Amino acid sequence: MITLVKQETYKLLHKKSTPAVSIALLIIMTVFGVLSKLYPKYWSAKGMFTTMYTGGSWVVLFLIAACSSIIAMEFQYGTIKELLYRKYYRGEILVSKWITMLIYSIYFYALVFVYSLILKVVLYNGKFNLTDTYANNQSIIETQFMNLIGQFLSVWLVLSLVLLLANIFKSTAAAISIGIIGYFA
User: Fold this and answer.
1) How many angstroms separate the CA atoms of 156 and 60, rounded?
2) 112 and which of 18, 55, 121, 141 could share a cystine (Cβ 3.0–4.6 Å)?
């Protein structure tokens, strides 16, 4: 099983989209951070920080695409047959893909969390403290962390559906489309 997870992680890290998505996410967060600095009337500094400069919302879309492609590409390129001819069972292959996506989602949320802290220091160092009370008698950092946990759990409800649909449809486009429609619905 560990060998399968290593192989899946290797394939994921060597896809061209993996670093591109990470860079795009950081650029999007930076744009929203700068916009909230320039137009505080529309985007409050504390509100943007607690929502991680919209990074969490974008992570969902990126993870839906990654989850659907991690399985559908095996069927598209015919490599699923090679995996099944070896000593691995179909369930082991699917669990290894699930574990790989779990690691990938933890990476994304850690990246978003750390980069939002960096943006806070760079853009709003003296404007507010992380220990200031924000909502429900929680500090700003507690509110952000609760948002992060809530997003992580809700995204995994959607990703479970996307992984299932990618197995059924065996098409990346269909699984991505249904996953995004399901997320917005």
Assistant:
1) 9
2) 55
Angle at 137 between CA 133 and CA 143, to 5 degrees: 70
Q: CB of 72 within 8 A of CB of 169?
A: yes
Rounded to whole angstroms, the Cα distance separating 12 from 15 reads 5
| Tokens encoding 24 | 């795009």
Q: Are 55 and 28 contacting, i.e. CB atoms less than 8 angstroms apart?
A: yes
pLDDT in tens, 53-100: 999 999 999 998 888 888 777 777 666 666 655 676 777 888 888 999
User: pLDDT per residue over 161-181, tens digit each?
Assistant: 888 877 777 677 777 787 788
